[in-house]
Amino acid sequence: MKHHHLRALVAIADHGSINAAARALCLTQPAITKAMRELETEAGVPLLARNSWGVTLTNDGQALLARARLIVCEIERAEAELAQRRGINESRLRIGVSPLPGISLLPPAFSRFRRVMPDVSVDFLEFDPPRLQEHLRNGQVDFGLTATQVLAADPFLEYSELSVYPTSFVVRAGSPLAGATSLADLQDAEWLHQDASNSYPVYLAGLFGRHGLPPPRRVTRSTSNVLFSTLMLETDAVVPLSLASVRSPYIASLLTPLALPENPPDIQVALVLREGAILTRTADYFIHCIRESTGLGNGSEPK
């Protein structure tokens, strides 16, 4: 299998048709068709199912796709790193993140990184946990930063704890609930969360049960960060939030932590890598900057 065969397969999967894949790769439609014909001949099975609205991958095509993505991404990283060593600035860094690292870890690390590598293209890509894990396995991001509590166990990924963040229940500043000191005061409140696994209602039921109370009836989940933030700031919802987020200068004056007898569990933020991943020096240096910013300080300066 050749590199251009696998690039064609990935492009077709991403764009949904041979013509769109050809445009994305700046190739002709016959060139993509030929590459796929050669790949199917070598594979010995059909990889594409053609229909009136385009093409889809067969089950065999889907099975090959994950490995094809990884190979294509690794070749692109190798080419970019060699170009960078020749003084050609083609390096690109893709980092998968969740909101908390974006607020607390990345700004100081990014400033450190930029002082040494001002010309590298950087993409910060926010994903829900399942998609972040998928992108890490496929090599579509160089590494991830996320809370470990929301990640399912994955034998193909490696986790390295970076920081632990205390949390609190908060309400918007000026909320009539701001003076609440017991869970009983919040029995009829709206409890808002972002937990993609939807285990938060179970946690709340246990929390209230430990204090001899039935679980709250009004529990709302929003996986949209924009909507979550809007509801948090414009309604009287009770929200679990890291103290790092609460103390952020952008929202510190907008939220009030509640003085309750029990706070939500601490949030553990981890660096996540694909098992056996070979980091580019660009990715390795960004991780060094993150570790320096968190006080861990074990990384390497770029060579």
TrEMBL record:
Keyword Ligase applies: no
Keywords (A to Z) from UniProt: DNA-binding, Transcription, Transcription regulation
Family annotation (Pfam families): HTH_1, LysR_substrate
InterPro entries cross-referenced by the UniProt entry: HTH-type_LysR_regulators (IPR050950), LysR_HTH_N (IPR000847), LysR_subst-bd (IPR005119), WH-like_DNA-bd_sf (IPR036388), WH_DNA-bd_sf (IPR036390)
Entry GO terms, CC: cytosol
Stretches assigned to the HTH lysR-type domain: 1-58
Gene Ontology molecular function terms on file: DNA binding; DNA-binding transcription factor activity
Family per similarity comment: Belongs to the LysR transcriptional regulatory family.
Protein name stated in the entry: Transcriptional regulator, LysR family
Organism field: Cupriavidus pinatubonensis (strain JMP 134 / LMG 1197)
Higher taxonomy: Bacteria, Pseudomonadati, Pseudomonadota, Betaproteobacteria, Burkholderiales
